[in-house]
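INFO  loader      accepted 1 record
INFO  loader      residues=82
INFO  predictor   begin
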Amino acid sequence: MYRELPENERNDLAAVILYSSATEALGMMIRAMVASKEVLSNKVLIQRLIAQLENATLPAQQAILSQTLALVVGQTPDDPGI
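INFO  predictor   done
INFO  writer      dumping tokens
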């Protein structure tokens, strides 16, 4: 039988979710933001990824979040050659 988890347990559970790829992590973040009608921008995605990265404790989770951050940031005007 299933029971509804209290808010603090849901947050703890969400903190240990491992994504299988950077694109999956990005897709899940975007879908969650669209579903909750939040503003969707690179700036917001970057802020959320940095916050998740700072709180990640598992090396695999940190690696995926770093890769996802690299996808979102991509090339910026201050990169050489732009």
